[in-house]
Amino acid sequence: MLKQTHVKKRLSYQERCQLAVLKKEAYSHRAIAKLLNRSPQTIHNKARRGIIAQIRRQKQNSKIYEHPYTIYDADAGQVNYEHQHLNSGRRAKRAPTMRLLTGQTIKCFNTNGRLMLS
User: Fold this and answer.
1) Which of 25, 76, 14, 23 is nearest to 51 (CA)?
2) 13 vs 45: CA distance, rounded Å
3) Which InterPro entries does its entry note (predicted)?
4) Is residue 3, in this structure, part of any structural domain at all?
5) Looking at the 3D structure of the chain, how many domains does it have?
6) What is the pLDDT of residue 1?
7) φ and ψ at 48, to 5 degrees?
8) SS3 112
9) Where are the extended beta strands (E) located within 1-118?
10) Separation of alpha carbons 49 and 82, rounded Å
11) Domain-located, residue 57
C-alpha cells in the first residue's frame, strides 16, 4: 500500500513553523517529511529556500572571533514564497506602440483599443 502524500507542494505557515522546530532539533529531511506527510524533496527545497545566515561572536583574550552559521527561519521561508508567488503566472502583454511597417504604414491604437492605420 502506497503512502498518500499531499498533491500540493506549498507548505502552510504552520508547517513551516513545524519544519523550523524539527530542523532545530536536528531531524533529517526524510524524518520531517514523514511527520508532515510530504515528499522529502519538497522538505529539502523549502528548507533550502528559508535559510538565513547568522554570525556568532565570541570574545576571548581581547580578541573577537566571528563564526558564521545558517538556520532555517519560517518567516524567511514564507517571505521567499510570497516573493516568488508574485513573480509567477502569465506575463502582461506589451503596451501597443507605434511601429513603422513596410510600405510606410504606421500602426497605432486609439483610446478605445481599436487599430487605426494611417
Assistant:
1) 76
2) 15
3) IS30-like_HTH
4) no
5) 1
6) 46
7) -70, -35
8) coil
9) 51-60, 63-72, 99-100, 106-109, 115-117
10) 12
11) yes
Residue owning grid cell 528548507: 47
Residue 98, amino acid: M
5 part of a folded domain: no
Cα separation, 28 vs 44, in Å, equals 10
- Helix (H) / strand (E) element for 82: namely helix 74-86
Q: Which three cell numbers stand for residue 7?
A: 498533491
Q: Residue 88's Cα: distance from chain center in Å?
A: 10
pLDDT tens digits for the chain (118 residues)?
445 555 666 788 899 999 999 999 999 999 999 999 999 999 998 888 888 888 899 999 989 999 998 888 888 888 888 888 887 877 777 655 555 544 444 555 555 655 555 5
Q: How far apart are alpha carbons 88 and 111 in whole angstroms? A: 30
Does some domain include residue 2? no
**Residue 65: φ, ψ to 5°:** -105, 135
Owning domain of residue 18: 13-87
- Identify residue 64 by its one-letter amino acid code: I
